[in-house]
Amino acid sequence: MEENSNNIIVYADKTVLKVQGLDIHGLNTTEVERLLMDKFKTIVRVIGVTGNSIDMDVYGIDPVQILKDEKGVIKTIAAAEGVSPLEVAKLAAERIVEVDFNSVKERDGNYCARERWLNND
Amino acid sequence: MIKNAVILPTGDEIRSGIVQDTDSSEAMHLLIKLNPEIEVTRKAPINDDEDSIKTAVENASQYADLIVLIGGSGGGHRYSDTLSKDFTHTALEKALDKSVNSCLFGKNGHLWCKLVCGYINNTLVINLPGPFVEAKAAMEAFCGSVKENDINIINKAMAEAVLKEYPLGAVIK
Q1: CATH classification of A14-95, choosing from 3.40.50, 3.30.1060, 3.30.43, 3.30.70?
Q2: Which of residues 80-119 of A touch B (CB under 8 A)?
């Protein structure tokens, strides 16, 4: 196949927030994003959902700031359509760490750079 | 002018109903706005599986002018075990006769989004990211640039539109 590729590196700070211990069906991700953006006053993007967890990107906010109000965050998410928190509901938050993209060696195959990075360590 | 479009949502979470598919209806809305006479079909969601996606694209290319795939555009499972399996772009690389793509990487090295634009059997094929605001921005950019009839221009417009959805302070280096 004939193919051309452009690579763009986005230098944005974000915290990856994972909420586990949820019962999810028929989730409206836009509503979750809106509720949390109102709470955090920053951009929130849902990037992954399973039947019991939601992964989100939260931009420009420290993980500690999110984790200090764990119950409030879970309560906010529970206000969205299609999600109910279970007794074991909990948060995990981690700020992304910058890597030197230029030092990541190319490999055959469709790997994301992080994977290439890890496999080259 | 696009007369017959097929929307192919992907993802186990969409297929199982865990997440509502709000992207497909938005893409359909924008395509109808682009051409009120268009016929748009939203097919059943495809499993997160490279062969299934490739087969669906090949089948739709038999009758559609445009194929729009939704979701599976990032590094996904390659980055984290808990993220979804992202196979749309790799399936397209195998299925398309000719294509261009733009990759948006985070500073953590993670592939946040790979947008592909190309042809199979003279059918134009694009993909949209899963997050609603990014899907909407990419689709609006497609509708604004498709008249140029140049996959490089379309792909660039779509990538720039998605990039603008990241917060202020995001910089291209």
Answers
A1: 3.30.70
A2: 82, 96-99, 101, 104, 110-117
